């Protein structure tokens, strides 16, 4: 029996974007959601920076349900090797900003790493504005 995991995706793993094919074979279901944080522009993909709840920043994305192998594939993509390891992204447990009962994993950066903040709450909208040739 497969173990199922909820993962919040907000960037290149969204449908239609470059890394969605990494997750697609493992996705059992998805639905819209949001988490507290702010996006930074790391070039062709974003990173989520966690902010204090009082700051009121929200990031839009999707909750996807993936099996254990899907979570492992996402860990490889995000270069998450485990607790107390050097990771590109950290995998942390969060609640949905609007539906607190919806909980799961999200990949985050602990700091800006010199990347500019994105003012909006959606990587998809920001990406479309950056790449005017994208449909």
TrEMBL record:
Q: Which domain of life is it from?
A: Bacteria
Q: Which SUPFAM superfamilies match?
A: Gamma-glutamyl cyclotransferase-like (SSF110857)
List, in alphabetical order, the Gene Ontology terms for molecular function in this entry.
transferase activity
**Can the keyword Oxidoreductase be found in this entry's annotation?**
no
The record's Gene3D superfamilies line, in alphabetical order, gives: Gamma-glutamyl cyclotransferase-like (3.10.490.10)
Q: Which InterPro entries match?
A: AIG2-like_dom (IPR009288), GGCT-like (IPR013024), GGCT-like_sf (IPR036568)
Arranged from A to Z, the UniProt key words for this protein are: Transferase
Annotated protein name in UniProt? Gamma-glutamylcyclotransferase
Organism whose genome encodes this protein: Paenibacillus sambharensis
